[in-house]
């Protein structure tokens, strides 16, 4: 991978920020000394400091030294952070990446400078193992900067570029979606216990079956129904189980849950 030559500040180095930092270094995208990690209590970053990463409690100082700034704080903390770093922001030099849910590029510029290039990225918790599904969108950034951000997040999983008006929907499908699929696996393992397996066996079997099903779609580039057809035979046990689940609202409840999550995700950030 082509190495980045500038400096990257990750403001609010929690799970997502730290996972991204580790991914960038592991993939050879950047060296530890090119990254500046910030959080209120830098004692929590001692392990990273020992590995050569820059650590700082001063967000403005980190921004002043960087070319790419990653805003990895909660939506509720964003307004205060933007106010804090505005004096150190140089729109002609920097690109901002926001992973805050429900906050538009325009919202961020309204707290900074109108000409600031802002790119939104929505990863999920699988970023911790390099398996994130990250959606990327912008309303004003240059194409080469969008490609740079895509390269960054490809170090920790798959990336899809989407229109910004779909970012809240992406939060529901990809970020909240992790929990939905985990709940489905949990339910399958409970079914396994009910039909005779020990809990640990049932969970292992459900997890690997789910992983295999997902990998089938990714590697075969097929549609779920194509793969379902391969395991459903006339009057068979698979179709009987599928129909029972559908009669009880399996698909419709998942669809409704995703729609409600999208609605909630859009209301996380307050502009004031």
Unreliably modeled segments: none
- Kindly state the number of beta strands: 8
Q: Architecture of the largest domain, according to CATH?
A: 3-Layer(aba) Sandwich
CATH fold label of the largest domain = Rossmann fold
Mass-distribution shape? elongated
Strands in their spatial order, largest beta sheet = 3-2-1-4-5-6-7-8
Report the order of strands and helices: EHEHEHEHEHEEHEHHHHH
- From the alpha carbons, calculate the radius of gyration and give it in angstroms: 21 Å
Structural category is alpha/beta
**Strand-residue proportion:** 5-15%
Q: For this structure, what is the CATH homologous superfamily of the largest domain?
A: NAD(P)-binding Rossmann-like Domain
Number of helices: 11
Helical content, roughly?
Answer: 40-55%
Largest sheet: 8 strands, mixed
**How far from one another are the termini?**
41 Å
The CATH class of the largest domain turns out to be Alpha Beta
**Mean pLDDT across every amino acid position:** 95
Number of domains: 2
Organism: Pedobacter antarcticus 4BY
Enzyme class: oxidoreductase
Protein name: Pyrroline-5-carboxylate reductase
Keywords: Amino-acid biosynthesis, Cytoplasm, NADP, Oxidoreductase, Proline biosynthesis
